[in-house]
Design goal:
about 45% strand; Beta-galactosidase, Chain A, domain 5; 21 strands
Length: about 290
């Protein structure tokens, strides 16, 4: 490890350590040990693909706003901190190198500790594997029950994608799927739009969503293919105007340049017996361009 100089640990904002994972094509992924949180992803052409708020906190006890936050073992509000504790824990970097298949890979681990046990009395081991090539990023997420009793969990990737103009951004592939609207008192409905566009605050979970959806960034004339496995649900989120103004770690106008397309087991929890492991993955493919119309 390290001979190819494809990865390097550096000190980032407020001195917090992060891994600079580089692929020979020029693609790069920056991952903070705080939350195993990918904050920046640039493809081989140097285009930035993730949104990161300029007002984000980079502090040990606060989540980072933007990039790819890790959800575990809770999604949303509940008895634990919002979206769980994994995104504010310091993960261990197990290794980073070029794989036999040509991808730049980094492996991070989080185990139960004194702090997590106080919040959630279960023994566990999480592993995140990031696989980077010129135009694709694959994230493998494993959850292992290392204790003696069953537990239930939710997990996911709360991915913030950059957008040149949210009014020219759309998501396709969810037509005909049921959804739950968190802005309407968790009312249920069925999606009828072939292309979901954004002109207001959006916070919807699509349970049992298809394995693949397509995000179109019309302002940049680019597509992002989002494909998942071992994950049941997709969430679409944009805070729009009023909520953006209420969020202390988010700029008032930043909603114009981002959208969250989240993958995970976010609606119904996964039950894991002692000794068992659950595997899931998300593949992000940024290689497609929108044809001229």
């Amino acid at each position: 490890m390290g001979e190819k100089q494809l990865s390097k640990l550096k000190h980032g904002i407020n001195g917090m350590p992060y891994l600079e994972l580089r692929h020979p094509s020029g693609a790069q992924l920056d991952i903070y040990l705080h939350g195993a949180h990918a904050v920046a992803w640039r493809n081989a052409e140097g285009r930035s693909l993730l949104f990161l708020s300029q007002k984000s906190f980079f502090e040990p006890d606060r989540p980072i706003r933007g990039g790819i936050p890790i959800v575990f073992p809770q999604f949303g509000d509940g008895p634990l901190p919002k979206h769980g504790f994994a995104r504010v824990q310091t993960w261990t970097l197990l290794g980073a190198d070029l794989s036999d298949k040509g991808s730049a890979e980094a492996v991070f681990e989080l185990k139960d500790n004194t702090e997590t046990i106080k919040l959630w009395p279960h023994k566990f081991r999480l592993e995140l594997v990031f696989r980077l090539v010129a135009e694709k990023l694959e994230i493998l997420f494993s959850v292992q029950n290392t204790g003696q009793t069953d537990f239930e969990f939710k997990n996911g990737l709360h991915t913030y994608f950059s957008s040149a103009d949210i009014t020219k951004t759309s998501v396709s592939g969810l037509a005909g799927n049921d959804y739950i609207d968190f802005l309407g008192g968790k009312t249920a409905g069925r999606e009828t739009r072939e292309k979901i566009r954004f002109d207001r605050e959006t916070d919807r979970v699509y349970p049992s969503a298809p394995q693949m959806v397509v995000l179109e960034d019309g302002g940049n004339r680019q597509k992002m293919i989002v494909e998942k496995g071992g994950m049941n649900d997709i969430v679409l989120w944009n805070p729009w105007i009023e909520k953006s103004r209420r969020m202390e770690d988010f700029g008032d106008d930043e909603y114009k340049n981002m959208v969250c397309v989240e993958t995970g087991n976010l609606r119904q929890p996964i039950r894991l017996a002692a000794g068992e492991k659950h595997l899931s993955e998300t593949c992000l493919d940024a290689c497609s361009s929108i044809r001229e119309r």
